[in-house]
Design goal:
7-stranded antiparallel beta sheet, mainly beta, 10 strands, 160 residues, 10% helix, 1 helix
Protein backbone atom coordinates (compact mmCIF):
# COMPACT_ATOMS: atom_id res chain seq x y z
CA UNK A 1 0.00 0.00 0.00
CA UNK A 2 2.88 2.38 0.77
CA UNK A 3 4.29 1.90 -2.75
CA UNK A 4 1.02 2.95 -4.39
CA UNK A 5 0.75 6.08 -2.28
CA UNK A 6 4.37 6.98 -3.06
CA UNK A 7 3.76 6.59 -6.80
CA UNK A 8 0.68 8.79 -6.59
CA UNK A 9 2.61 11.49 -4.72
CA UNK A 10 5.46 11.39 -7.26
CA UNK A 11 2.93 11.65 -10.11
CA UNK A 12 1.21 14.71 -8.59
CA UNK A 13 4.57 16.31 -7.81
CA UNK A 14 5.69 15.95 -11.44
CA UNK A 15 2.31 17.09 -12.74
CA UNK A 16 2.21 20.24 -10.61
CA UNK A 17 5.78 21.38 -11.23
CA UNK A 18 6.46 20.64 -14.88
CA UNK A 19 6.76 23.52 -17.32
CA UNK A 20 4.55 23.73 -20.39
CA UNK A 21 6.12 22.88 -23.71
CA UNK A 22 7.45 26.06 -25.28
CA UNK A 23 6.56 26.86 -28.88
CA UNK A 24 9.20 26.43 -31.57
CA UNK A 25 11.85 29.15 -31.73
CA UNK A 26 13.31 28.30 -35.11
CA UNK A 27 12.46 30.18 -38.27
CA UNK A 28 11.51 28.17 -41.31
CA UNK A 29 12.01 30.14 -44.51
CA UNK A 30 11.14 29.45 -48.13
CA UNK A 31 11.75 31.74 -51.12
CA UNK A 32 8.54 31.19 -53.11
CA UNK A 33 8.87 33.77 -55.91
CA UNK A 34 11.84 35.43 -57.60
CA UNK A 35 11.95 39.16 -58.26
CA UNK A 36 11.12 40.00 -61.89
CA UNK A 37 10.83 43.23 -63.86
CA UNK A 38 9.14 41.55 -66.82
CA UNK A 39 10.08 42.55 -70.36
CA UNK A 40 11.13 46.10 -71.11
CA UNK A 41 13.46 48.06 -73.35
CA UNK A 42 15.59 51.18 -73.27
CA UNK A 43 14.58 53.66 -76.01
CA UNK A 44 17.85 55.59 -75.78
CA UNK A 45 18.88 57.45 -72.65
CA UNK A 46 18.31 54.94 -69.86
CA UNK A 47 16.34 55.32 -66.65
CA UNK A 48 14.92 53.00 -64.02
CA UNK A 49 12.31 50.30 -63.73
CA UNK A 50 10.79 49.50 -60.35
CA UNK A 51 8.54 46.76 -59.04
CA UNK A 52 6.88 47.59 -55.73
CA UNK A 53 6.28 44.97 -53.04
CA UNK A 54 2.66 44.98 -54.33
CA UNK A 55 3.88 44.03 -57.85
CA UNK A 56 3.25 47.43 -59.48
CA UNK A 57 5.70 48.32 -62.27
CA UNK A 58 6.85 51.91 -62.82
CA UNK A 59 9.57 53.47 -64.96
CA UNK A 60 11.56 56.67 -65.36
CA UNK A 61 13.48 58.10 -68.31
CA UNK A 62 13.41 56.16 -71.57
CA UNK A 63 12.51 52.75 -70.14
CA UNK A 64 9.40 51.26 -71.76
CA UNK A 65 7.55 48.22 -70.40
CA UNK A 66 6.40 45.78 -73.09
CA UNK A 67 2.60 45.44 -73.37
CA UNK A 68 1.27 42.63 -71.19
CA UNK A 69 4.50 42.37 -69.20
CA UNK A 70 4.13 41.88 -65.47
CA UNK A 71 6.46 42.69 -62.56
CA UNK A 72 6.78 40.33 -59.62
CA UNK A 73 8.12 41.12 -56.15
CA UNK A 74 10.34 38.60 -54.42
CA UNK A 75 8.23 36.58 -51.97
CA UNK A 76 9.40 34.77 -48.85
CA UNK A 77 7.26 32.49 -46.68
CA UNK A 78 8.32 32.78 -43.03
CA UNK A 79 7.10 30.32 -40.40
CA UNK A 80 7.61 31.20 -36.73
CA UNK A 81 5.23 30.99 -33.77
CA UNK A 82 2.87 33.86 -32.98
CA UNK A 83 4.20 36.65 -30.86
CA UNK A 84 7.78 36.21 -32.01
CA UNK A 85 9.47 39.21 -33.59
CA UNK A 86 11.54 38.97 -36.75
CA UNK A 87 14.13 41.50 -37.90
CA UNK A 88 14.82 41.71 -41.62
CA UNK A 89 18.11 42.99 -42.99
CA UNK A 90 19.38 43.23 -46.54
CA UNK A 91 21.95 45.28 -48.48
CA UNK A 92 20.86 48.55 -50.10
CA UNK A 93 22.17 47.49 -53.51
CA UNK A 94 23.22 44.46 -55.51
CA UNK A 95 24.63 43.87 -58.99
CA UNK A 96 22.99 41.98 -61.82
CA UNK A 97 25.23 40.70 -64.62
CA UNK A 98 24.77 39.25 -68.09
CA UNK A 99 26.76 36.51 -69.81
CA UNK A 100 29.16 39.12 -71.28
CA UNK A 101 30.06 40.47 -67.82
CA UNK A 102 28.12 43.74 -68.09
CA UNK A 103 26.32 44.76 -64.91
CA UNK A 104 23.36 46.80 -63.68
CA UNK A 105 22.71 48.18 -60.19
CA UNK A 106 19.70 46.95 -58.24
CA UNK A 107 18.31 48.97 -55.30
CA UNK A 108 16.61 46.53 -52.93
CA UNK A 109 13.44 47.27 -50.99
CA UNK A 110 11.31 48.32 -49.47
CA UNK A 111 9.33 45.34 -48.24
CA UNK A 112 5.74 45.24 -47.07
CA UNK A 113 7.07 45.14 -43.50
CA UNK A 114 9.42 48.11 -43.94
CA UNK A 115 13.01 48.86 -44.88
CA UNK A 116 16.15 46.95 -43.90
CA UNK A 117 16.33 46.77 -40.11
CA UNK A 118 12.54 46.69 -39.64
CA UNK A 119 11.11 44.39 -36.97
CA UNK A 120 7.71 42.74 -37.36
CA UNK A 121 5.71 40.13 -35.45
CA UNK A 122 4.95 36.73 -36.94
CA UNK A 123 1.28 36.06 -37.54
CA UNK A 124 -1.35 33.69 -36.08
CA UNK A 125 0.07 30.48 -34.61
CA UNK A 126 2.98 28.07 -35.06
CA UNK A 127 1.48 26.61 -38.24
CA UNK A 128 0.70 29.92 -39.95
CA UNK A 129 3.02 31.33 -42.60
CA UNK A 130 3.87 35.04 -42.65
CA UNK A 131 4.40 36.32 -46.20
CA UNK A 132 7.07 38.95 -46.90
CA UNK A 133 7.14 40.67 -50.29
CA UNK A 134 10.23 42.60 -51.44
CA UNK A 135 10.34 45.21 -54.20
CA UNK A 136 13.33 46.75 -55.99
CA UNK A 137 14.49 49.32 -58.55
CA UNK A 138 16.79 48.50 -61.46
CA UNK A 139 19.04 51.28 -62.83
CA UNK A 140 19.58 51.10 -66.60
CA UNK A 141 22.22 53.50 -67.93
CA UNK A 142 22.30 54.91 -71.43
CA UNK A 143 23.80 52.44 -73.94
CA UNK A 144 23.21 49.44 -71.69
CA UNK A 145 24.09 46.19 -73.43
CA UNK A 146 21.08 44.05 -74.29
CA UNK A 147 20.79 40.71 -72.60
CA UNK A 148 19.44 38.62 -69.80
CA UNK A 149 20.78 39.94 -66.48
CA UNK A 150 20.71 37.81 -63.36
CA UNK A 151 21.88 38.11 -59.78
CA UNK A 152 20.75 37.86 -56.22
CA UNK A 153 20.87 39.42 -52.80
CA UNK A 154 21.05 38.14 -49.26
CA UNK A 155 18.19 38.82 -46.89
CA UNK A 156 18.39 37.86 -43.22
CA UNK A 157 15.50 36.95 -40.93
CA UNK A 158 16.57 37.05 -37.28
CA UNK A 159 14.47 36.43 -34.16
CA UNK A 160 14.28 39.31 -31.73
Amino acid sequence: MKKIIFLIIVFFYNFLYTQPVLPQRTITLDATQALSFGKFYNKANGGTISVSWQGVLSTTGDIIVMPGSQGLPAIYAVKLCQGRNIKITYPKTSKLTNSDGHSLTLDIGPTEKGVSGAVFASEKNCNFITILRVGATLHIPQNTHKGFYTGGFAISFDQQ
